[in-house]
Amino acid sequence: MATPQLLASFKYSDSLTVVGISVCTAVICEAISWILIYRTNSYKCLKSSIDKASKKLETMKTETTKITTNKKSKTKKMDRVETSLKESNRDLSLFKFKSGAVVALVLFIVFGLLNSLFEGKVVAKLPFKPIGFVMKMSHRGLQGDDPTDCSMAFLYLLCSISIRTNLQKFLGFSPPRGAAGAGLFPMPDPKTN
Hints:
GO biological process, one term: endoplasmic reticulum calcium ion homeostasis
Order of helices and strands: HHHHEHEH
Pfam families: EMC3_TMCO1 (PF01956)
Keywords: Calcium, Calcium channel, Calcium transport, Coiled coil, Endoplasmic reticulum, Ion channel, Ion transport, Membrane, Transmembrane, Transmembrane helix, Transport
Number of strands: 2
Transmembrane segments: 16-38, 100-118
Structural class: mainly alpha
Shape: elongated
Family: Belongs to the TMCO1 family.
Radius of gyration: 23 Å
Strand content: under 5%
Number of domains: 1
């Protein structure tokens, strides 16, 4: 009985609670994704076809810069590989959709729980004065005018984004190399310009 009281008197207890719940949520979400997506044979097949197609497309692009003969046939082959890569990416996105819905539901439930626990409470102090739109997010639901106060929503958002992304990389669940939208800013399609 003395342990919860000791933890509550600790200076950073609210911050560590939010970070700990964020870590647990990330682990649970990745476990759900593994059960629904990553362990299935169809995912493994799609991932390998995307990897093969992206490598093939990459080698074809490097070869076309070196050799300029048979440019039309090379362009047609590249178009076919790009089309198959886009189809595989679309199939992969649809395949991940069901897991995404379950993960979103879990995240909404956890966020609602945390919001009720830490409503109007300062859970952290920022080491800087944030700019306008960031301050609106970091100070959401808090009373007072101290711009360095941080709400649970902002801390949970930052933790969820960073922890889940790094956990996916650590576990090897990051998107395949040639997957559409694999990064925050995917490469634009040169044909549309």
